[in-house]
């Protein structure tokens, strides 16, 4: 009898967990603004989606970048590539200690990915960024400069993927 009561209690607790959990909770009323694939030398690496409460996406509101990987990539490679792109896009030199802190933050938040894995990042205006692996939060960083630099990899006009940028922003023809 006790086991049945415990099972009923567990079932009730599980049904209270929303089906739309994790990063979705951070942008509850968001809609898919745009999506597209990112490829290098003809090899597709991932499919990216931009979720936002309004379009065009801007840094005044919350939005989420959701990526589904089609290739395996180690977290160190993700972080190093991210820092490289942030440095390339930056209008002015970024101090080495800042880049080292941002890389450490990425290494904390990122995981090794294999095909089918999903990583998401939610922009928190005037606050920072929250990262997810699947639906599990892996890091939150209260650093608006880091957040803008990170999302600039995809959203800055100097991105390496201008066609993907237009797709994510919903402005592709």
Description:
This protein has 173 residues and is of the alpha+beta class. It has a single domain (20-169), classed as Chalcone isomerase. Helix content is 39%, strand content 27%. The protein is built from 6 helices and 6 strands. It has helices at 2-16, 23-26, 75-89, 96-109, 144-155, 162-169; strands at residues 31-40, 43-52, 63-69, 118-124, 128-133, 136-141. It has a 6-stranded antiparallel β-sheet with strand order 1-2-3-4-5-6. Helix 3 (75-89) packs antiparallel against helix 4 and helix 3 crosses helix 5 (144-155). It is globular, with a radius of gyration of 18 Å. The N and C termini lie far apart (63 Å).
CATH architecture: 3-Layer(bba) Sandwich
CATH topology: Chalcone isomerase
CATH class: Alpha Beta
Low-confidence stretches: 1-20
- Tell how many strands the DSSP assignment holds: 6
Distance between the termini: 63 Å
Shape: globular
Largest sheet, strands/sense/barrel: 6 strands, antiparallel
Task: Round the mean pLDDT to the nearest integer and report it.
Answer: 88
What structural class is derived from the secondary structure elements? alpha+beta
**Proportion of beta-strand residues:** 25-35%
Protein name: Chalcone isomerase domain-containing protein
Domain Chalcone isomerase: 58-170
Keywords: Signal
Organism: Paraburkholderia metrosideri
Structure, briefly:
This protein has 173 residues and is of the alpha+beta class. The chain has helices at residues 2-16, 23-26, 75-89, 96-109, 144-155, 162-169; strands at residues 31-40, 43-52, 63-69, 118-124, 128-133, 136-141.
